Amino acid sequence: MCGIDFDNRPKVQMDDSLFTKIVQELAPWNHHVRQVNLFFDNEPLLDRNLARKIRILKDAGIRR
């Protein structure tokens, strides 16, 4: 499904401090968290910090 208003939205990325805070809150529950998706209405491979974010999640015990 393609949205008709995707081009009208502002291009933003989640702040690193917010990402770190979310991962820290998820870490104690890593045995319940099945996966974390690093996208919403965008292309995750355009994030220059994607590998670092994946490493942070893996280090916190998030498997996928």
How many DSSP H or I helices?
Answer: 2
Main β-sheet description = none
Helical content, roughly? 25-40%
Helix-strand sequence: HH
Category by helix and strand content: mainly alpha
Instruction: Let me know the average pLDDT.
Output: 86
Principal-axis shape: elongated
From the N-terminal CA to the C-terminal CA, the straight-line distance is 25 Å
The tally of beta strands, per DSSP, is: 0
Q: What fraction of the residues are assigned to beta strands by DSSP?
A: under 5%
Radius of gyration: 14 Å
Low-confidence stretches: none
Q: What does this protein look like?
A:
The protein has 64 residues and is mainly alpha-helical. The protein contains two helices and no strands. The longest helix is centred in the N-terminal third of the chain and has 11 residues, at 16-26. It is elongated, with a radius of gyration of 14 Å. The mean pLDDT is 86.
Brief overview, please?
The protein is built from two helices and no strands.
Pick out its properties.
2 helices; elongated; 64 residues; mainly alpha
